[in-house]
Amino acid sequence: MKDPFPLEPLPWLSKAVQPWADYLSLPSLPLHIHEVLIACLLYSVIYWPISPLLSNLLVGERYRSLPRKRRVNWDAHVVSFFQSTLINGLALWIMFVDEERREMDWQARIWGYTGAVGMIQALAAGYFLWDLVVTSLNMDVFGPGTLAHAVSALLVYSFGFRPFVNYYAPVFILWELSTPFLNIHWFFDKLGMTGTKPQLYNGLALLFTFFSCRLVYGTYQSVMVFKDIWAAMNTFPGLELLKGASNLPGSNIPLSDAMRFLTTSSTVPTWLAAAYLISNLTLNGLNFYWFVMMIRAVRKRFQPSRPVGGQEKQAQAVLHAADSAPSTASVRPRRRKA
User: Fold this and answer.
1) Full residue range of the structural domain in which residue 191 is found
2) How many H helices and E strands in the chain?
């Protein structure tokens, strides 16, 4: 599927980034660098001035009375809500309509590329570029941990421009289906709606999407990507893929499209496989832990008042930290902490 982004690559920008792409072995980056920068600009405009204007209009004094640090955090949550909703919708759409992606075999799932999936990769990278800038400018709000996450997330998303496991980019983006509900939960707390029926219904939707998308679907897809990476480690694509005389085995994808960036040196080095698999395994383990703690935190809001113990405090904190670690093929967009 061709890149559906409404603007074509800018020749001068692609040319300017080409030397860096060659040096860093990111051959598809010049085709999507304009999307990375436009996405970063869009999120910046939403952060300011759109979020302050809308927040003043919709909640008025509640927003204006917030101290600077809380306003910065509020505006970051607005960006996170918009970004997670947008990229989830695009990921679902691409998974349904991108026939090239649907027909990929294991080699194409590792080294393959389609313009549509490249766009998803670029929009996610643009978010983390914005994240890096905002965090750097507000270290007193977000701290060094958030800065380290922004840097690592941007680096890991950049691996997708090798290209590497682009097939799985929209798959792991769907872990984010719970993030809009997580942001809404946060806003309910800040707007004095803790324990209300709307927060209850939203909490149930949050738990359902988190369980189904991360624990069930996410775990299954992690096993599938592990299998593909294991098959590709320190091996090279079959010669029939490099000759360009036939389509991918068992599929209808022309080499010139899905495997256009394939070369005789294409492989999955051990360091890349290890970094990917370790981060994915870590996040899968955290997902199960977070789910238990999120249940405790949601239940806490609808039980009679009682002294808050250590476990309850920890559970409440999870609702604001569960989305602060990596995911897409290894790292995912996430909203800010409270």
Assistant:
1) 11-321
2) 17, 0
